[in-house]
Amino acid sequence: KQFDWAVLSLLNSLMLFDFLQSAQIETVMVLLTQIVFEVGIEAYVELIEKHLATIQSVLGEEVVLKLRKHLFEE
């Protein structure tokens, strides 16, 4: 459960830093990578997808597309 809140918090930070075009995006990505090592890739992807669905319903697809770019393409 603690990782669930951590992932949500980091995704919120990632959205903010993306909006600000901040170099802190790399720090968030490092922290998310550490969570992958703690919980495993399957549990991590499950957490990410759950939160992305919620974010999309509130903030829209454009925000989620930007997040996916950071999470899965970089």
Sheet having the most strands: none
Radius of gyration, taken over Cα atoms and rounded to an integer in Å: 11 Å
DSSP strand tally: 0
Which stretches are poorly predicted, pLDDT < 50 over at least 5 residues?
A: none
Summarize the structure in words.
- This protein has 74 residues and is mainly alpha-helical.
- The protein has one domain.
- The protein contains four helices and no strands.
- The protein has helices at residues 2-20, 25-39, 41-59, 61-73.
- α1 (2-20) runs antiparallel to α2 (25-39) and α1 packs across α4 (61-73).
- The protein is globular, with a radius of gyration of 11 Å.
- It starts with a helix and ends with a helix.
- The mean pLDDT is 94.
Salient structural properties:
74 residues; globular
Quick structural summary:
By secondary structure, the protein is mainly alpha-helical. The chain has one domain.
Which helices and strands, and how do they pair?
Blueprint: H1 2-20, H2 25-39, H3 41-59, H4 61-73
